[in-house]
Amino acid sequence: MPTSSPTRFAQLTTGLALCGTLGLAPALAQTAPTTLTVQVNKPGAPVSPVMYGLFFEDINFAADGGLYPELVKNKSFEIQGQHFIGWNAIKGAAGLQAYTVVSDKPISATNNHFARLTAARANPDAGLINEGFRGMGVKQGADYTFSVYLRRGAGNVSGLNVTLEEQGRQSSGPVAATSGKTLAQAQITGLTNEWKKYTVVLKPTGTAAKAQLRLTMEGAGTLDLDVVSLFPKDTWKNRENGLRTDLVQLLKDMQPGFLRFPGGCIVEGRTLSERYQWKETIGDVAARVPLINRWNMEFKHRSTPDYYQSFGLGFFEYFQLSEDIGAEPVPILNVGMACQFNSSELAPVTSSTAPGGPNAAEAHSHDDDPTLETFIQDALDLVEFANGPASSPWGAKRVAMGHPAPFNLKYIGIGNEQWGPQYLERYEPFMKAVKAKYPNINIVSSAGPSPDGDLFDKATTRLRELKAEVIDEHYYASPEWFRQNAGRYDNYPTTGSKIFAGEYAAQTVAIGSPDNKNSWDTAISEAAFMTGLERNADKVVMASYAPMLAHVDAWQWTPDMIWFDNLRSYGTPNYYVQKLFSLNKGTTMLPVQLSAGAKNGQDNLFSSAVADDKTGEIVVKLVNYSASARPITVSLQGVKKLGKTGKATVLASPDLNAVNSLDQPMNIAPKDASFKVSSSNVTYTLAPNSFTVLRIPGKR
Ligand code: AHR
Questions:
Q1: CA of residue 681 to ligand 1 center, whole Å
Q2: Whose CA is nearest to atom 3 of ligand 1?
Q3: Which of 115, 118, 142, 223 has the most other CB atoms within 10 Å of its CB?
Q4: Ligand 1, atom 5, residue with closest C-alpha
């Protein structure tokens, strides 16, 4: 542990408050229009083409139970010590003599546990129920592929009855929920004494957000079952192991520049043995072995002991998702450190990887007790997996998974949210080994969990000395902090390392507080801050809100950008802020000025501007953080080819506490209107508490 560890996560785990300020800014008297000068004829830096992206982490049931639409929880009975998590014997096993987890002649060496059911006599209750992820969301008339591996043992079991049904009365303890209305039924027959995969399509007669899967034996005797799956046919691009369509659509609609994955602290694990290992997440889905999810018990107030990672959504799928939504993949890799908020375990730096030692890529190590070399080799292999030819060992694995073309990986992150000398002494050899083999890969490095303080300063100084390409800064703070820090990057160096605002979100109460809300106050304050990112296009090249997804019944961390249940999803006001910045990122930064010496945010007016050279428009972003409407004149200095009609997109609410919800998903959502442009002095009235994007036809 560092001698002085940052306090942010400590607040997170102990629940201490970081005070946010809610409430309205003092109302401004209606005055003459404020003039905002946009220096169209003095363009600044190009806007990074990957400026606004996505941060994905499997937190809040974001993967299993979320983006990854497998409906069966714990399909392979592989969870150590909890082999029946998600499964309950019907009526407390009244119809069964026994149900056990067994490893006798399993279907594969990695998937080497399965369920064995024994019934002394035929009984309609001889079986198990799978509860899904807080139930199973199924839609009337849609197709769901049920598949299972079965092997008949002693006795005369002639089949497996498969029933998709609504959950009945909820129970506690080992007794399964009772059965509700039947939604679909099938019977599998033709069992043999060898493992065989059976598949049948279920078509529910009704829609249910909380269905369950009931499996019962036909006849008496013993039946082995494994890899039980119920998967919607309706997936993104109709892929067999595809992703949930409504969630991918929300992501794609943002036109994200990049997708950061798989996290987040999940990269690190609470211990090194629980770290995320990408190699365990590729290949045959049935052979991927689940791992505990580090968020399961992190917060006592949102304890989720049944939270595991199935890795059905693994690195291949992340790359594919990036490609599908047009985002650059940004995998973040473990740097040989377990989470410093938890065990702080470290992989030793051996002489071959110490700065100045031989090239790490040539060194060897064993994963049982991994040294830093293991982690470096994983990174090198990942680049080969993503970009290598079919003739390379790891490239061949990608090709075998059905993607002959390279994924064109350009970025990797070394470490998630690490700090202290332990990070820097691992980062340096890691970065050098990657650069030695892959000089064109851009490396993202970590500035730690706090956006300021001694550890932040030391990390930043050293990373700049090491000529780090992109430094990842994180900030979770009050809405007020976001507004007050709109000028954060104004005095950053214009040369050398660039900034990735890799995780940020305004917190209404405190970091980690279960009472945080995705209020309009948080979103409008983030918009105010983001005008500062945009103004500093020469320094800030990537930005992503975090976390991205949360299940309304299974979350650990709030606020989050997109919320969902088993059937529905919605974007928060924060989602729409991110989306508007992304869709209107333009191509070249244009300097803006309220009046000589005025700071961004003076009188609670925040602004930035870009030229969009692709469409021939000047794009001005304005945040009016006040309870009054505000007339404004946008003075476009030196603009050419001015058009006649502009487009305004407005996100606004008089109520800073307003939120979106599953029932009111568009309570705060962008509204478009057109406005007249009659000269280079464009007049417009900003709504109270609004974020407005003006697209004005005109060139630089
Ligand atoms: O976004 C939630 C967590 O916040 C991330 O996992 C971690 O990087 C940060 O501490």
A1: 44
A2: 264
A3: 223
A4: 264
- Please name the residues in contact with 570: beta carbons below 8 A apart, sequence gap of 6 or more: 562, 563, 564, 660, 661, 662, 665, 666
Mutate to test the pocket of ligand 1, among 503, 507, 574 (most ligand atoms within 8 A of CB): 503
Contact criterion met (CB below 8 Å) for 449 and 476: no
**Ligand 1 atom closest to the CA of 503, numbered from 1:** 1
417 is catalytic: yes
* Rounded Cα–Cα distance for residues 411 and 280 (Å): 21
Phi, psi (rounded to 5 degrees) for 321: -60, -45
Domain boundaries, the chain: 6-47+586-697, 54-67+237-583, 87-234
Domain 6-47+586-697, CATH class in plain words: mainly beta
Query: Which residues surround ligand 1 with Cβ inside 6 Å?
Result: 9, 57, 59, 263-265, 416-417, 449, 503, 546-547, 557
| CB-based contacts of 598, cutoff 8 Å, min separation 6 | none
Q: Which CATH architecture does the domain made up of 54-67+237-583 adopt?
A: Alpha-Beta Barrel (3.20)
pTM over 0.70: yes
User: Helices H, strands E: what count in the chain?
Assistant: 10, 34
Look at ligand 1, atom 8, and give the residue with the nearest C-alpha. Answer: 264
For the stretch 493-547, pLDDT in tens is 999 999 999 999 999 999 999 999 999 999 999 999 999 999 999 999 999 999 9
Q: What is the pLDDT of residues 22-44, one digit of tens each?
A: 233 344 445 688 999 999 999 99
- Could you confirm whether domain 87-234 is CATH 2.60.120.260? yes
How many angstroms does the Cα of residue 383 sit away from the middle of ligand 1?
Answer: 24
* Spacing, Cα 619 to ligand 1 middle (Å): 32
